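Progress note, project year one: complex with glyoxylic acid.
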Amino acid sequence: MATTGLAGDLAALDRFGKDEDGGFNRLAWSVELRRALEWLAETMAEAGLRTELDPAGNLIGRWEAGSGAPLIIGSHLDTVESGGRFDGALGVLAGVDVVRRLRAADFVPARPIWIVAFMDEEGERFGTAMVGSQAIAGELTELPAELEDSDGVTLGAAMAGWGRSPDRLGEARLAQPPWGYLELHIEAGPVLEEGGSDVGAVTVVAGIAAFEVTIEGRASHAGSTPFGARRDALLAASRLVVELRERAVRGNYLATVGRLAVEPGGISVIAARATLTVDFRADAAPRLDAAAADLGDALAGIGELTGTEYRCRPIYRLEPLPMDAELIAAIEAAAAEVGVRCLRMASGAAHDAMVIGRQAPAGMIFVPSVDGISHSPAERTRAEQVEIGAQVLAATVRRLCA
Ligand code: GLV
Ligand code: MN
Ligand code: MN
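Model obtained:
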């Protein structure tokens, strides 16, 4: 028997962008993402939603019920490279399924309910992040068309394949802010599983400050250049990776170097250049500021020690955002109604909720991630926990739209 409902939709989405390691590759503005959204538009239409792919590449499915501004239920279908099956996808597909559940129960919402699959939440391809949600919120009107991905494809060219243009993102801005925003997401960390909780009610979404650092050394011969005469860019980068970890522990933030490229990359050649990314996370803005200051400090000290020079370019910054107290309470009440254990917790990962939540009250529901793994093909949430998450989301929507 074919699986239907939310589990069936998750299985259907498996067709788009899966690689041989079991990871998903639906990067922003990719063909794989476009095919997935075409399938989603059909699925939304079957659920009775009126669909639109907006100028920022957001797919919006509208249930035009009741009156006033809509409750938006959103998340994203784009992934990091070889990302997981649930990050983002769960929240979008659960939103569509909630519409089906409410319709089946003859529920008549007091206000419109819109399901949104936001474009480019992850930001991995072009170093952008939260493009769709920022455009809808009116915080992003354009992006440079010449931004390039790792294959040299420009953002302008990638968007042209969708009939969209980076200088027209502003046209996605909503005429009025939504009434509220809800997002169901995997925790992407270990807290719920370790504590034996079924769902999380998110209190605050941590912010991100991301940078690209370029360290310039000098290429030279590995056999004939004494240590004292070297200007080794990779040695400097390695020291930076270790020092950032130590400073982060002291400063109570997270620091990750996820990308490191070394040039020229010869076995017998001292590295002339190292380019790396630094991703800082903290749930309060002053600690993100402190992290950025630590980076400058560390680079200056390491430059002196290793005879290298550096440049540091901010990639993006997203401010931490507390979730709305009334929506947190509604999620807790919904969890009690469903009969499951709910834990108040912070989100370490970033989400579209931190953007839309600046325009309207926002709330997030987390479900457990097996072994706390995400941004990996090993990302998993058990079927029964997916179902619990959808039930809590549906119960929260019923409370908010009664
Ligand atoms: C989004 O997935 C993030 O990097 O937090
Ligand atoms: Mn993610
Ligand atoms: Mn996500």
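The chain has two domains: 6-205+321-401, 207-318.
Residues 6-205+321-401 form a domain with the Aminopeptidase fold (CATH 3.40.630.10).
No further modelling is planned for this target in the current period.
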